[in-house]
Amino acid sequence: MAQIFSDARDCSFSNSSISCMTGDQNIVYGSQTVINHSYGGRRRNRDEDDYDGDAEEVEARRKRSRLKALMDDFREFKRGDTMVLELISGKNSEFNNMRARRRIEAVKIFSNETRNEKFTSVTFEGTEAQEMWKDTFEEFSRIRSANSWQLFGFTRSQSYPSLIFHYEEHVSFNSVYSRASPIVKVFLLYRLKADVDHLRDTMDVLMFTSEAWVVPEKPTLNYGPPEEGSEGVDDDDYPYFHSISVLKPFPGFWREEAVIAYLDTAAVEFHGLLTDAGTGFYDEVSFCDCDHTDIMPLGQLFLTNRGSAVGGIPLTPTWSKIRQWFKVGQGSEDVDCSAVIMQNGWTRVYHPCNQYMKNPSLKESIEFRAVVEMTEESRKFLLSSWYSQAPWVFKQIGLDMYQHGRDLWICDSIESQITLHGHDSLLLPKDIFVFLPPIEQVGAASFCLKGDPFLSYDECGETRIGCSRDDLLGLVSPIQRWCFGCMLRGRDPLPYIASSYYQRLKGYNPDTNAYAAAHGFPIFQFAPNFKEIIINFVKKMGCYEKTKINPDGGKDGFLLPLLDGHASHSRIEEVDEEVEVEEYLTTETEVIF
Fold first, then answer.
1. 213-242 pLDDT tens trace
2. Domains of the chain
3. CB 206 within 8 A of CB 223
């Protein structure tokens, strides 16, 4: 008997018979019957590595086990325990190719454990509601942060699963943003950037399903499930990029009067706020080819045709720094060019053909760059200078800032590029050197190359290989071009609207440069031929319309060239004669606020 019961389980005694389960066999004493039974369940004591099941099934079991462990940390309720008090948001969603409807509601839970408290419920319904519920649950179950909605419990309804969060009154950032005044919009964007350090951990987890929410009862922003989409900030405007000093929140920061009062008491200038809230205002465009090959100035304002500058903001010599020639390009690390700076400032490098002769597989071109860059502080000052007088500049050049803000680029860095091509011949008589001219400063913020690059057999560069000799040897002369880096090529006219709006509130006329002068900014200087540049720009655009601007975006009244040659409003007139364009440039423009 001891042997029978040693490993037995599920034993029973009935009518003088003993039934005993021992692993894979049932042995019934009395009328004895042996029943072979294979146990298909997972053995608790079996090591995971010894499990012989399919790998996908193993992974599925692990996921189910992990989900169950997470669910054990929260309370489960039945759908009937909740009573909907208020619909906060409802949205048809597509996330990770899943289709479902999501409703955010204020609910009360009737339970002995909750004492009829108020909660926020996110309910999912649709063909893939369970998948969306699971993904959202796994994200929010990992977070316990004051900067995020905090999960309390859940329901597992087959058709309407939901997540239940501790309640705070929330208003979605997009909802507040879409209804806010220009000043409040700028401040909300600034707050998103300012809070990036506090929100970073939350955002790393909620990268795909989170959005910012405003908490009216206390001056904070936090992250929760996405609300119904509305016109406002798109995903690129959320602060994944930069970190600045954190601004302490204050009550009512989503209201204009509160923001203005804060700016006055905290001695924060609005143009600085515009600069720090710049995410979403402009694209930092990569280096663009330009027509200039002689002198390149920083702080110049270009139209999208990349022609001559309309004008520029005068800068001081201390605003920039020069980085002389350095090698770039994929695979360039395999080519040793041995750069040496000569006493006269020129840079001597080995031509890559010297390497190609030793290793014919290295046929890639090598590029060298020299760059003039602004310091971060100078860049912010340039932005503040521009925002403070942009409405006046637009007025002077006759373009509408609300539509054509994206057509203007400001040069904030300069780059000279020289490309050295490979060489297929192995008959070069000796090593060849390339001499690259230094970038030198020729004005307060203007720069040029001291000469043209050249080839030489001489380490000191005293002799040069002529063009005819280049052809004879099969060499390709260095290819040189200038580029400029741009900022302020904006997607959104908000900074111009907000700047003009704020200046009027403070008693300045935005159609003048009084605000910029009062704050000590260098005044924008127009190029002598700026009207001709604008005429060419208008003719290139092809057509224009009559419109008048107000701060709410309504239009009705004066001539306005269009960006893409298509009208978004009523009246369109073709421009065929330059006289008509000249008349447009000199016509006074009325702006209504």
1. 777 666 666 666 655 433 333 333 333 322
2. 2-36 (no CATH), 70-166 (3.30.200.20), 171-268 (no CATH), 288-303+311-375+406-487 (no CATH)
3. yes
